[in-house]
Structures are given as structure tokens and as C-alpha cells.
Fold each of these.
Amino acid sequence: MDTPARHRWMQTAAIVAGLAVLAGVFMLYTQPAFMVTLIDQLWSCF
């Protein structure tokens, strides 16, 4: 069933996936053109 080794592997995979998503978001925020586009899209909702 759910062995400790499988649980540890799933936990490690979740942490790695989370860090990859955070790194991707950080890379987008370092681009000023992306930030302007994001703010323009947010402003257009109002």
C-alpha cells in the first residue's frame, strides 16, 4: 500500500514541483514588461 519510501518520494516530488513553480513566478516578476501587462490586465477588470 503506502510505504514510507513512497511517501518520502511523493513529499520530495511535491517540494521540487513547488520550488519550480516559485522559480518560474520569480523569473516572470523580474521582467518589467510582464509586470506592466499584468497590471494593465488587472486594471481592466474595474
Amino acid sequence: MVLLDSLNRHLLGSYGGTEFDTPNLDRLAARSVRFTNHQTGSLPCMPARHDLLVGALDFPWRPWGSIEVWEEAITHLLRRDAGISTMLVSDHPHLFESGGENYHADFGAWDYLRGHEDDPWRTRVDPSFIGAPTRRGQWEHAYDISRSWFRSEADFPGPQTMTAGARWLDAELSAERQPHERALLVVDEFDPHEPFDVPDPWATRYDPDWEGERMIWPPYARNQAESGLSDRESVHLRSQYGAKLSMIDHWLGRILDVVDRHNAWDTTAFVLCTDHGHYLGERGFWGKPQVPVHPEMGHIPLLISWPGVAPTTTHALTTTVDLHATLCDVFGVTPEHRTHGHSLVPLLEGRTSSVREWALCGVWGREVHVADATRTFARAPVEGNRPLSMFSNRWTTMPIRVLGYRMPRPDHRAWLDHLPGSDTPVIRQPFDASDALPFWAGGTFSDDLLYDRDEADATGEVRNDTGGVAETEMTELLLEALNTIEAPTEQRIRLGLG
């Protein structure tokens, strides 16, 4: 399984993109089942990985955090119940800091390649400093120091991660294995996530006429004016995302080459997925701002090469927790905690044409989205965005090092509750209007949003269809979905659903 972070579906050649080159992703797609209706679940980065490795939707209960004490990562089940060898290769900093610190723990082994984004890898610059292109802001990134230690393209975290993944897979496929021996490799690659920093020739590939300092840090903005970018800067910044996409696509080829060299496609399932997309100026959005989830963020790619299954396309609705259910199915393990996914094996093998009728998506404390086969509906909170509670026994969230941000501590208002399917007491902390909400949950809200994904794909526009019969249908579907997962009562009340 290869997870590329912030991978935009609409920019991939296999999904009709022509702006940037993705030959190895297209090469994998040519031998895969290509999913055209795959949707995000919990957002952003670590909540999405919780969906993947734990199989339970994260966002209805908490904003961002580690695996809880009542949950088991699938890697624990594989080692304990099935004797499966598991390996993680990653350059993703959030997996090794507060709020993500135990996702790697149950892998049989892991390899962490250092220096991406705000990874606190070095304390001072390389004396032979080669510089880090950056748009100067109000703080210095740890990346400004780490970047000075990269001497060549192969030193960048993404290329290092793909090389390490290919090396492990090559050794595994070269070993004398018994017919029953199986293994799971997860390559959690942070590219093409920002910073959009790549060496030449990638850096100038899509914007050779740029003459200023390269821009590698995208703003998180809800409109073009808020972004502070000129039209020319917007073009350049978008080109740098494309440069990083093409560079990591190039290095992905090393892993594909290993499977080719060992002629292992008939014995190897290969899953290519992502956590979410990334706005690059569409409708004025940049980064991952506090807005309803639009197609560029929520409608994501999924490619699965499955032994014995011919390349094809499926339009079945799927989401991230379904990948967890698929791994459980193929390896024959059963989680003890409550999960929300449906195995894709019957879909891959042609025994069914669908596995679900709806999929939930969202960021804790913000809009809650429900998707059916063709539509996505974002329900905004009522005024005040209350009541709102967080459920967690680990009580960590994304640390914002440059801002010194930490999670508000539980206080006298907290009480012990239980999540659906769990007898483990869990801290339930309510928030009121005086509280500083955990990061990602703040900001203002716009009205509800209902759009047709096929229409958005065809036109690039998102037309809001709220106010009619379709909104009534999708509101009822959202309520059904929340009831099915036994979401906290607060979620229904704060959304004005009673």
C-alpha cells in the first residue's frame, strides 16, 4: 500500500489530467481497478490515517489524535492473529509526534526518513548551506534547517522513502518464502504535500520563466484576496505542486520496477491511495482552509492492482475505512472495536457492484458531509456551533510548533462516557463559546452546500443545489448515516437535525 499525501485526483493522467506528468501512476492505473467514486472520510492527515489503520471514522468524536486505548490498529491484529510480517516506510512527520505517536508502534518494523515539512531533525544548518527556497513569512520553518542538508535529489525525504520501500520489497520478494507466508508493506509518503520544494530539473519543469525566489509554501486561504497571491504567483505556486507530484511519481517507479523485476503482480496486491486532495487556487481556495469539502479535497483517487483481476473501472461509492475492511478481509482478521468499513474484495472480484449507499466525511467541529452515489451534501452547524464535545483518553492533537499551540486541557466539565461498541470509559469534554477550539475546528461557516460530483467533474464548477427536494433527501440521508454510526447527540443538535 502506497499512500501519497495531498494527491489531487483531477491532476493525474489516469483520471484525465493533462497539466502535469504522472507516467508511473498512469502505469499502475493501466493494470489496476480504477475507482472513480472514492471519497475522503475523516480529515485531515492523522484522522485519515486513523480511518485507514483503525477502520473507525474519527471526526465525529475528536479532531486529531493517536490510536485510542479501546482500539487496535490492523497491524496489531496481523501480528497477533495472523503472523503477518508488517513494515512501515515513511517520511511523514505527524506519525512521530504528539497526536500520531503510536500509529507506527504495532508494525513489525518501521523506517523513518527525516527532514520533511516541520520535522525537528536538525538544530543548525549544514555549514556548506545550499539554501532552502521559501516565501518569507512570520516564522522560520524547521524545514529551512533540514533542507540545508540535502545535497542531491536522492537526499530529499520523498526519494529516500521510495528507495527504502523498494529496497525492503526487493529483499522480501527475493527471500525464500513458504507459499503461506504473506506480508504487508505500507509506504506512507508525505509528498506531494507542502513544502513544494524540489531540485532542478523538476523545479523549472512547469514554470521555466519564473525569475523570482521559488515559492514552496502555499497559503491556507478561503479566497484569492485572502491568499495574498498575485495571479503570476498563483501560477508559479501551482507549478511547484506539479513539480513535486512529477518528482515523487518518478521515484514511485522504483517500487513498480521491483514488482516487475520479480514478476510478482500475480501474487501482489498493490493499493495506491491518499488521505485527501489540496486546493491550488480552484475557486480561490488554497491549501486546506476552513471551508466545506469541495471535489478537489474530497473526491480522491484510488488504484488497486489485484491478482487475477483484469484492469477495469468501477464507479462504486467507497471511502477510506473500506481499505481497512479490505485488509481485514484478505488477511482474515477481525477487529474487536467498532468499525465502519466494507470490504472491497467482493467489488474487486466482480461479485457485487456496490458496497455502500453513503459515506460520511468531515473535520471535527466543522461541516459534516454525506455523499451518495452522485451527490455531496455539506451541512453547516447552527449559529454558535454548539453543543460540541470531544471524546478521547489520549488527549493530544496536532502540535503547531511555530505557534506554540497545544490542545486545551480537560477540565471540571469533563465526564466519563462510552463510545458505541466500547465498554471502556472515555473522557467527554464539552466546549463552550469561551473555549479556544482545537486547531482545524475554528473559523466562520458559510451556508449548506449540495453539489453533483459528475457535474463538477465535467465543468470544474460547483453549483449549490440546496433549497429543494434534493436537499431534503440528502438531509435525511445524513441523519440516517449519523444514526447508523451512533454519532454523538451533539453532532445532530449542532447541525440543526434535532
